[in-house]
Specification:
Blueprint: H1 3-15, H2 18-25, H3 29-43, E1 48-49, E2 55-56, H4 58-85, E3 91-96, H5 98-115, E4 120-125, H6 128-136, E5 142-146, E6 154-169, H7 170-177, H8 181-190, E7 201-205, H9 210-221, E8 227-232, H10 235-243, E9 249-252, H11 253-257, E10 266-270, E11 277-285, H12 292-311
Helix pairs in contact: 1-2, 1-3, 1-4, 5-12, 7-8
Length: 312
């Protein structure tokens, strides 16, 4: 028995097809069949019933569960040995959203590079679901963002709590309400009522994002049917369009605070609801070895955010 045969067995068990498994592994069906046959000879039992699709026998089902643990331990052992052997050549793979990479990572990465100048950084930027998928499939060492929708085998370290704001461009109010704009502003500031904005255009992120879900919840909760002028997958674009007065947005407070825009051109109103506060965390797989570089990066990120909180 060898590690390669076990890894091949896992793929066949997941696909329940020699044809699909061989394509996934880029090996011939004959070679794959030989590996499974050798495992069956080693254990002295049949692992698959040759039905269509294949069926795991009780022995095969037990081996599948245990082989996953064994291969995970093997991968962790290799990672730990590599970490010890050539720490200076390590690559740290970090994932986050485009906007969070711009607003949150530069200070932390600069401090990390000063501490560990030989470590190379591979930065993956995508939507929150995309980052979660990359982390869960083992393509990232860690990610920064919201708590994952599925927290199994994921360890999360809190950084800070973010709140969501309704952001209204003053220019938009002036263009839409004319001489009454100042009166509307006073009413909004005294007691925010989203219904005063119901005839204004809104801008939002595209579907399947956390912020889009917040936007939908807020509109449904307040029985609003917004006129959506623009959808974009990028929060930086959303802020830029809002800054130019194109429409009202819902935005995490942290992004607005760290943006380069003149805040006096906005009116910001916190959303008062159970879903309006979300924790921003560092996520990493709890079932994989955490490298020394990753541990150092986590420590530095926590220190950077603690320092920012004290100075704010």
């Amino acid at each position: 028995m060898n590690i390669q045969s076990l890894s091949y067995f896992l793929v066949v068990a997941e696909e329940l097809s020699f044809t699909k498994a061989s394509k996934r592994l880029y090996v011939s069906q004959q070679s794959l069949s030989n590996h499974i046959q050798r495992l069956e000879e080693y254990f002295g039992t049949t692992l698959f019933l040759r039905t269509v699709p294949l069926t795991l026998t009780p022995s095969g089902d037990y081996l599948y569960k245990e082989a996953k643990k064994l291969l995970s331990a093997h991968d962790n052992l290799r990672a730990r040995i590599t970490d010890i052997k050539d720490y200076e050549q390590e690559i740290l793979k970090i994932g986050t959203t485009h906007s969070r990479a711009r607003s949150l990572l530069p200070a932390a990465l600069k401090s990390f590079h000063l501490l560990q100048p030989a470590i190379r950084i591979h930065l993956y930027e995508g939507s929150t679901p995309q980052v979660e998928e990359q982390l869960r499939h083992g393509h990232l060492d860690l990610s920064i963002g919201y708590l994952p929708s599925d927290t199994s085998n994921i360890h999360s370290i809190p950084l800070y709590d973010d709140i969501f704001l309704v952001v209204v461009p003053v220019q938009l109010l002036q263009e839409h309400f004319g001489e009454q704009a100042q009166t509307i502003l006073q009413q909004l500031d005294q007691s925010f009522d989203p219904h005063l904005l119901k005839n204004l255009p809104f801008l939002t992120l595209t579907a399947q994002t956390k912020l889009s879900n917040i936007f939908t919840l807020y509109m449904e909760e307040n029985d609003l049917n917004p006129d959506i002028l623009l959808e974009t997958p990028n929060l930086d674009t959303l802020l830029a369009m809002c800054y130019e007065g194109l429409g009202v947005i819902i935005c995490p407070a942290s992004f607005l605070e760290r943006s380069p825009y003149d805040k006096s051109r906005f009116r910001c109103y916190p959303i008062e609801s159970s879903y309006s506060r979300r924790s921003i965390v560092i996520n990493y797989p709890s079932n994989r070895y955490l490298s020394s570089a990753a541990s150092d990066f986590i420590r530095i990120v926590k220190e950077v955010f603690a320092s920012a909180a004290r100075s704010s």
